Amino acid sequence: MNANDLRPGMVIRHNNELFSIHKAEHRTPGNLRAFVQARMRNLRTGALIDHRFRSTDAVERAMLDETEMQYLYSDGDSYHFMNTLTYDQVNMHKDVLGDRALFLVPDVMLKVVYFEGRPVDVELPATVDLKVIETEPGIKGASATNVTKAAKMETGLIVNVPPFINEGETIRVDTTEGTYLERAK
After folding, report:
1. Of the candidates 164, 128, 132, 127, which has an alpha carbon nearest to the alpha carbon of residue 145?
2. pLDDT in tens for each of the 185 residues of the chain?
Protein backbone atom coordinates (compact mmCIF):
# COMPACT_ATOMS: atom_id res chain seq x y z
CA MET A 1 0.00 0.00 0.00
CA ASN A 2 0.99 3.62 -0.42
CA ALA A 3 2.33 5.69 2.53
CA ASN A 4 -0.54 8.16 1.98
CA ASP A 5 -2.95 5.41 3.12
CA LEU A 6 -1.44 5.09 6.63
CA ARG A 7 -4.06 5.47 9.37
CA PRO A 8 -3.86 5.24 13.19
CA GLY A 9 -4.27 1.66 14.42
CA MET A 10 -2.74 0.03 11.34
CA VAL A 11 0.18 -2.35 11.79
CA ILE A 12 2.95 -2.23 9.20
CA ARG A 13 6.25 -3.99 8.59
CA HIS A 14 9.12 -1.50 8.39
CA ASN A 15 12.85 -2.40 8.49
CA ASN A 16 11.89 -6.02 9.31
CA GLU A 17 10.04 -4.93 12.46
CA LEU A 18 6.32 -4.57 13.21
CA PHE A 19 5.02 -1.09 14.02
CA SER A 20 1.60 0.12 15.13
CA ILE A 21 0.70 3.53 13.70
CA HIS A 22 -0.32 6.05 16.37
CA LYS A 23 -0.46 9.17 14.23
CA ALA A 24 -0.01 9.83 10.52
CA GLU A 25 -0.04 13.34 9.03
CA HIS A 26 0.22 14.14 5.35
CA ARG A 27 2.30 17.29 4.84
CA THR A 28 3.17 19.37 1.81
CA PRO A 29 5.67 22.07 2.86
CA GLY A 30 5.74 24.97 0.37
CA ASN A 31 7.24 23.93 -2.93
CA LEU A 32 8.83 20.74 -1.57
CA ARG A 33 7.67 17.18 -2.11
CA ALA A 34 4.79 15.82 -0.02
CA PHE A 35 5.51 13.38 2.78
CA VAL A 36 3.76 11.49 5.56
CA GLN A 37 5.03 12.07 9.11
CA ALA A 38 4.19 8.96 11.15
CA ARG A 39 4.48 8.30 14.88
CA MET A 40 4.60 4.57 15.42
CA ARG A 41 5.29 2.06 18.19
CA ASN A 42 7.59 -0.90 17.72
CA LEU A 43 5.56 -3.97 18.74
CA ARG A 44 8.65 -5.90 19.84
CA THR A 45 10.34 -3.23 21.98
CA GLY A 46 7.43 -0.87 22.73
CA ALA A 47 9.53 2.16 21.70
CA LEU A 48 7.78 5.10 20.03
CA ILE A 49 9.53 6.52 16.97
CA ASP A 50 8.81 9.18 14.38
CA HIS A 51 9.47 8.35 10.75
CA ARG A 52 9.03 10.39 7.58
CA PHE A 53 7.76 8.45 4.56
CA ARG A 54 7.77 9.98 1.09
CA SER A 55 4.19 9.98 -0.15
CA THR A 56 5.26 7.66 -2.99
CA ASP A 57 6.87 5.07 -0.67
CA ALA A 58 5.36 1.60 -0.64
CA VAL A 59 4.50 0.32 2.84
CA GLU A 60 3.84 -3.33 3.71
CA ARG A 61 0.76 -3.81 5.86
CA ALA A 62 1.09 -6.72 8.29
CA MET A 63 -1.66 -9.32 8.39
CA LEU A 64 -2.59 -9.95 12.00
CA ASP A 65 -4.97 -12.23 13.87
CA GLU A 66 -6.82 -11.09 16.98
CA THR A 67 -8.17 -13.35 19.72
CA GLU A 68 -10.42 -12.25 22.58
CA MET A 69 -8.67 -13.25 25.81
CA GLN A 70 -8.86 -12.76 29.55
CA TYR A 71 -5.89 -11.47 31.55
CA LEU A 72 -5.17 -13.90 34.39
CA TYR A 73 -2.07 -12.90 36.36
CA SER A 74 1.59 -11.90 36.22
CA ASP A 75 4.56 -13.70 37.72
CA GLY A 76 7.56 -11.42 37.64
CA ASP A 77 8.21 -10.43 34.03
CA SER A 78 5.55 -12.66 32.40
CA TYR A 79 1.87 -11.81 31.92
CA HIS A 80 -0.55 -14.68 31.36
CA PHE A 81 -3.70 -14.61 29.21
CA MET A 82 -6.39 -17.25 28.55
CA ASN A 83 -8.70 -17.82 25.60
CA THR A 84 -12.11 -18.21 27.29
CA LEU A 85 -13.43 -20.46 24.50
CA THR A 86 -10.60 -22.98 24.18
CA TYR A 87 -8.87 -22.40 27.56
CA ASP A 88 -5.53 -22.09 25.74
CA GLN A 89 -3.07 -19.91 27.64
CA VAL A 90 -0.31 -17.66 26.34
CA ASN A 91 2.18 -15.50 28.16
CA MET A 92 3.89 -12.29 27.09
CA HIS A 93 7.01 -10.67 28.48
CA LYS A 94 6.75 -7.23 30.09
CA ASP A 95 9.05 -5.81 27.39
CA VAL A 96 6.42 -6.64 24.75
CA LEU A 97 3.60 -5.02 26.76
CA GLY A 98 5.54 -1.94 27.85
CA ASP A 99 3.45 0.68 29.70
CA ARG A 100 0.21 -1.11 28.77
CA ALA A 101 0.96 -3.61 31.54
CA LEU A 102 -0.02 -0.87 34.02
CA PHE A 103 -3.65 -1.19 32.82
CA LEU A 104 -3.89 -4.96 33.34
CA VAL A 105 -6.09 -6.10 36.20
CA PRO A 106 -7.14 -9.74 36.64
CA ASP A 107 -10.20 -10.87 34.66
CA VAL A 108 -10.14 -7.91 32.21
CA MET A 109 -11.11 -8.96 28.67
CA LEU A 110 -8.89 -7.74 25.83
CA LYS A 111 -7.65 -8.70 22.39
CA VAL A 112 -4.30 -10.44 21.97
CA VAL A 113 -2.78 -9.74 18.55
CA TYR A 114 -0.90 -12.54 16.79
CA PHE A 115 1.58 -12.27 13.92
CA GLU A 116 2.64 -15.52 12.24
CA GLY A 117 1.31 -17.56 15.16
CA ARG A 118 3.03 -15.70 18.00
CA PRO A 119 1.52 -13.04 20.31
CA VAL A 120 2.99 -9.61 19.57
CA ASP A 121 0.61 -7.08 21.13
CA VAL A 122 -2.49 -6.53 23.23
CA GLU A 123 -5.39 -4.24 22.42
CA LEU A 124 -6.68 -2.78 25.68
CA PRO A 125 -10.33 -1.95 26.31
CA ALA A 126 -11.18 1.77 26.14
CA THR A 127 -11.39 2.04 29.95
CA VAL A 128 -10.40 -0.01 32.99
CA ASP A 129 -11.46 0.24 36.62
CA LEU A 130 -8.51 0.55 39.00
CA LYS A 131 -8.35 0.79 42.78
CA VAL A 132 -6.55 3.74 44.39
CA ILE A 133 -3.98 2.45 46.88
CA GLU A 134 -2.10 5.64 47.72
CA THR A 135 -3.04 9.33 47.60
CA GLU A 136 -3.32 12.38 49.83
CA PRO A 137 -6.44 12.51 52.01
CA GLY A 138 -9.59 13.74 50.26
CA ILE A 139 -11.07 17.16 50.91
CA LYS A 140 -14.61 16.99 52.24
CA GLY A 141 -17.05 18.99 50.13
CA ALA A 142 -14.55 19.47 47.30
CA SER A 143 -16.20 19.74 43.93
CA ALA A 144 -14.72 18.94 40.56
CA THR A 145 -12.33 21.75 39.65
CA ASN A 146 -9.18 21.89 37.61
CA VAL A 147 -7.16 21.11 40.78
CA THR A 148 -5.82 17.55 40.87
CA LYS A 149 -3.60 15.35 43.01
CA ALA A 150 -1.51 12.30 42.17
CA ALA A 151 -2.88 8.87 43.03
CA LYS A 152 -1.13 5.51 42.78
CA MET A 153 -3.25 2.65 41.43
CA GLU A 154 -3.09 -1.05 42.35
CA THR A 155 -1.01 -1.73 39.22
CA GLY A 156 1.56 0.99 39.93
CA LEU A 157 0.07 3.50 37.48
CA ILE A 158 0.10 7.14 38.65
CA VAL A 159 -3.06 9.09 37.69
CA ASN A 160 -4.02 12.70 38.46
CA VAL A 161 -7.41 12.64 40.21
CA PRO A 162 -9.77 15.28 41.66
CA PRO A 163 -9.25 16.16 45.34
CA PHE A 164 -12.37 14.26 46.52
CA ILE A 165 -10.95 10.82 45.57
CA ASN A 166 -9.66 8.81 48.56
CA GLU A 167 -7.58 5.67 49.06
CA GLY A 168 -9.58 2.48 48.58
CA GLU A 169 -11.93 3.96 45.95
CA THR A 170 -12.19 2.51 42.46
CA ILE A 171 -11.93 4.88 39.52
CA ARG A 172 -12.38 4.51 35.76
CA VAL A 173 -9.23 5.27 33.75
CA ASP A 174 -8.92 5.97 30.01
CA THR A 175 -6.35 3.49 28.64
CA THR A 176 -5.27 5.62 25.66
CA GLU A 177 -4.33 8.70 27.70
CA GLY A 178 -3.97 7.22 31.20
CA THR A 179 -6.33 9.82 32.63
CA TYR A 180 -9.08 9.83 35.26
CA LEU A 181 -12.62 9.70 33.84
CA GLU A 182 -14.98 9.10 36.78
CA ARG A 183 -15.62 7.08 39.91
CA ALA A 184 -16.45 3.48 39.09
CA LYS A 185 -19.82 2.24 40.31
Report:
1. 164
2. 888 888 877 889 898 888 888 888 988 888 888 899 999 888 777 788 999 999 888 999 888 888 999 999 999 889 999 999 999 999 988 877 878 889 999 999 999 988 888 888 888 888 999 999 999 886 666 565 678 899 999 999 999 998 888 899 999 999 888 899 999 87
Q: What is the DSSP letter of 147?
A: -
Task: Map out the domains of the chain with their CATH numbers.
Answer: 3-61 (2.30.30.30), 65-123 (2.40.50.140), 127-183 (2.40.50.140)
Element (H, E) at 82: strand 78-82
